[in-house]
Each structure stands twice: as structure tokens, then as C-alpha cells.
Amino acid sequence: MFSAASVETMLRVPRNKSDCCCRNVMTRVVLAEPAMAANFLAPVKTDKQIYENSMLEDDPNANSAVTHEEKIKPRWGPHHKGAQELANLYSKGKRIQECICVGVCMTLMVINLFFILVHLRFESLSSIVVAALCGIVTADFSSGLVHWAADTWGSVELPVIGKNFLRPFREHHIDPTSITRHDFIETNGDNFMVPVPVLVWMAWHFLTHSELEVQQRFSWTCYVFLLALFVAMTNQIHKWSHTYFGLPSWVVFLQEYHVILPRRHHRIHHVAPHETYFCITTGWLNWPLEKLRFWQALEWLIERTTGHKPRADDFKWAQKRS
Fold first, then answer.
1. Which sign, positive or negative, has the C-alpha torsion 269, 41, 46, 320?
2. Are residues 228 and 113 in the same domain?
3. Nearest by Cα to 174 from 274, 41, 82, 63
4. What are the average pLDDT values for consecutive 10-residue runs of the chain, which has 322 residues?
5. What does the DSSP 8-state code read for residue 13?
6. Residue 99 within any structural domain of the chain
7. Where do the coiled-coil regions begin and end (predicted)?
8. Is 7 helix (H, G, I), strand (E, B) or coil?
9. Which residue range(s) make up the domain with 312?
10. Other C-beta atoms lying within 10 Å of the C-beta of residue 104
């Protein structure tokens, strides 16, 4: 920042043409600096944008404030035609897959947690804490990357992944509260599937390696375990960020202190056209990634390379209002 004295010196009456040019340049720098700082620190979405371009999930009487047109052709919610079509695509086969994934993942989690507690040594606690924290941050970034990819690209019509994995993302944008009506299996089935191969490898590592070999890689093992745990729990945390009534007090505490994704924080993502704040585990990385324009840069690169428009399928489903 420039001091008052330096600003005064720069703005004195110039003695020659060169001095005049220098003064003009420095004046623009001084005046631009506060504007740049204000823009950098400005909120990603204003309260007005949130109110006008997202569903008011925290107000049970919000429907009384909608226009007549929105009652006939709802912009969001369970009465939206597109949301109803997408909800009906949830199949029995999908349910079976989710049940299997939840059962297998939870079993492997318990087995690996047991081995970790058996091999835990308090003299290495500091490195374990750092590794665990890195695992949580990695999970947050991973949630953002997967969320961004599924929100932005692909189509429900794609074979296998369309109805099974992209469908919930499309439904969620036009009926954000649908996730609060899903049970534990439907909410977490896909996320519990992701860490299964890693958890199998961890269990095999504990069972086939000596104590010395386990201790040599123990910090790395803790990193992978916390990464797997938070990846598995991401959609449950996401569900809590849409739940405004009846949450346990300990969940509200974690949200208020931003240990996990807060409700107010996640509202920013649900402002149409849903182009920012994709990280949904803790949300710690959302602000820096937005200021770096990380997602926008990826979208620009992919669009220039492939010609595909970001969020085209998402927009198509949003238009099916009646």
C-alpha cells in the first residue's frame, strides 16, 4: 500500500513532461489499488443474487412469495417437471448397487480403523495429524473436481453413467431439497463405492506386511484413510448443508465453525447457473479456487478444445418446467 506522503509527492505539480507522464501513471496505480482490493474481497454472490436466483430452502413459507407464473411453471422444487422425470429414473438395480457399496465400504472402514488403532504410536502423532489434515483437504478438492465435472459436462442420455451417476446432479439443481428426502443408502451409495478399492489395498497392506513396514508408511496410511473417509461422507455432509430443520447440535456446531460444509456457504453454489463453489466436503478450497478462476479456466480450455458448451445438459433439464 502507498503511504500518504508518497501519494502527496506523486501528485505534486510536475516540473517537466517526463515528470507529468510519471505522475499520470502513478495516479492510475494509486486509484486502481483500492478498487482491485475491493473486487478481490467482494463476495462471490450477493444476497440479492442468492435470493433471486436460487431456491429458498431455509424458508418453509417461501412458496407464498412466488409469482403466479412460478406456481404454474415452478423454477425449482419437487413440482418441477424435469425434477419429477429425473426422480423417476431411480431404478431397483441402482438401489441394489448402492446397498452393496454401502455394506462393503462400511465393513472395510471398520477393519482398517481397527488396524490403524492397533498400530498407532503416540510419538508419531504430529505427523499423523498433518497427514490426516492433508487427507481432508485432498477430499475437499476431489469433491470439487468430481462435482464440477458432473455438473458441467455429459448428459443423462449417456449409457451407464448418465442415468446412474449424472442423473442425481441434474435433479439436485432443480430440486435442491430432494437430497433431504433421500435415505442414507440413496444419499451415500455412490460415494461409498469410490474408496472401496483403496480400502481393500489398505487391509491387504496391514495383513501382509511386518510391523516395521507398517510403521514406515503409517503417516501415508493415515492420509489415505482420512481421504477415503471424507470422500465416503461427502454427500452426507452435502445433505446436511441442505437441511435447515432437525439437525443434531454437533452437526450444526461443525457447520458453524466451518469444519464441514456450512449451509450458508453452499447456498452460493445453488445460485443459477451453478458455476462456482463446487467443493462440498469442507468447502475450504472454494474461495481460493474462485479467486484463481480455476474452474472457469478449465471450462474455457475444454470448450476451446472440444466445442462443447459447459452446463448445456443442466440447462436443458432446468427448462422442463411444465
1. negative
2. yes
3. 82
4. 46 50 47 46 56 52 47 61 82 95 98 96 89 96 97 93 92 90 95 97 96 93 97 98 93 96 94 92 97 96 94 87 66
5. P
6. yes
7. none
8. helix
9. 81-318
10. 15
Torsion of CA 281, 285, 287, 291, to 10 degrees: -140
Residues 6+ apart with CB under 8 A from 47: none
Q: Which of 185, 162, 164, 299 is nearest to 239 (CA)?
A: 185
Question: What cell was used for 109?
Answer: 472402514
Q: pLDDT at position 320, please? A: 79
Residue 238 belongs to some domain of the structure: yes
Q: DSSP for 91-153, please give it.
A: -HHHHHHHHHHHHHHHHHHHHHHHHHHHH--GGGHHHHHHHHHHHHHHHHHHHHHHHHHHHHS
Place of cell 507522464: 21
Give the DSSP per-residue string, 279-320: --SS-TTHHHHHHTTHHHHHHHHHHHHH-PPTTHHHHHHHT-
Amino acid identity, residue 225?
F
